[in-house]
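Ticket #4471: structure export looks truncated?
Reporter: QA, pipeline team
Priority: medium

Steps to reproduce: submit the single chain below to the structure queue and open the exported record.
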Amino acid sequence: MKQAFPRKVFLFNRGFTLLEVALAVVVLSIALVSVFRLQSQSVWIAARAQFETTAPLLARKTMSAFLAQEPDTLLGESGDYGENWPRYKWKVSLEPVYSEVLDETSKRLERIYLTVDWDDGIFSYEIESLRMIDPQ
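Actual output as written to the record:
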């Protein structure tokens, strides 16, 4: 009886060599590292964009609140924005204004610096304003 499919041994069909597998792993690892790097940069850019749109609004809101206070109660303070903006913090500092041009008027001016930080200073936004106080 004759076999329907004769058995032939192919010497050239033995699988992949170690060099081919190693090369495939290297190419795959380079591709994965590139993808992960691109993804982490995208996350960083998105966080930065969110901060750049949110921080000015929060800073103006806080500065308006401080400018509405009485000058005597306006002290260097700091705080956060609560549950709505959990990673944002603000700090206010005051400094007298000295100007030879303004002379006596400069003694009635205070410079108010307001800094809004995100996540302990990873991103920071600063605004300043001047306020006229009554002479005492």
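Status: closed, not a bug. The export was complete when the record was re-opened. Leaving a note from the reviewer for reference: The longest strand covers residues 85-96.
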